[in-house]
Design goal:
Layout: H1 2-30, H2 32-56, H3 65-87, H4 90-109, H5 120-144, H6 149-164, H7 169-189, H8 191-199, H9 207-210
Helix pairs in contact: 1-2, 1-3, 1-4, 2-3, 3-4, 5-7, 6-7, 7-8
């Protein structure tokens, strides 16, 4: 895996070297003024589009709209430059290979960067997520305590209400775990009432099947 990452880095560095050669040839081909105008025009056109894509996409494939716009501008300038290098024949290909090898050597000489620190927003989201998970764990742990079957029936009815109000995916996962615990307790404490409740289609309020009616003998609650 590490060797594959090294090969990928070397390939990227070589590509940057060839692109740089093409960009330099593009500047020589178009002239500094025309090349600058072309870079500015492409940057101004691409940057807003990249910013919009990043804003509307939940998982953006890139980190900076400005970097995308700068890369697109350099690519547009490098394309005619690479054509010009190929037109030069062996000299142009040699120049591109020399720059590619130089970029690879520079990449190998530069030490790996340490992992980027999380931003303040990411750290805040992590803390919120940890707090929410802790709340879920406390709720689940409380259900594992010896609650009465009447309280468990109330919890089951609350989960039905919560699911009816379009709960999010994370809330649905927590509710599923809560309901699993309730089902286990229902079956363990009153198996006959539990099966009658299931045969009735598991209505939202299981208490009429699981709680003893007046005059019945005691049930394990």
């Amino acid at each position: 895996m590490r060797q594959s990452g090294l090969v990928r880095r070397m390939g990227l560095a070589a590509g940057l070297g060839v692109g740089t050669a093409g960009a330099l040839a593009g500047v020589l081909l178009l002239g500094p003024v025309a090349a600058s105008i072309l870079l500015a025009a492409v940057f101004v056109l691409v940057w807003p589009l990249a910013a919009v894509v990043r804003h509307v996409t939940d998982d953006a494939p890139y980190g900076s709209a400005g970097l995308v716009a700068a890369t697109a501008a350099a690519a547009v300038l490098a394309l005619p430059g690479l054509v010009r290098l190929l037109a030069w024949g062996g000299l142009g290909v040699t120049a591109a290979l020399v720059l590619a090898a130089l970029f690879v050597l520079i990449d190998l000489a530069v030490p790996d960067r340490p992992p980027r620190r999380a931003t303040r927003k990411q750290r805040k989201l992590e803390r919120l997520t940890e707090a929410q998970l802790a709340d879920d764990e406390q709720l689940i742990a409380s259900l594992k305590c010896p609650l009465s079957i009447e309280e468990l029936c109330g919890v089951w009815s609350e989960t039905v209400t919560q699911l009816a109000h379009d709960a999010g995916l994370r809330d649905r996962q927590a509710v599923a775990e809560v309901r699993r615990i309730c089902l286990d307790e229902f079956e363990k404490r009153n198996p006959d009432g539990f099966h009658r409740w299931l045969d009735a289609g598991a209505p939202a309020n299981p208490s009429r099947y699981l709680l003893p009616t007046p005059g019945e003998g005691p049930t394990r609650l």
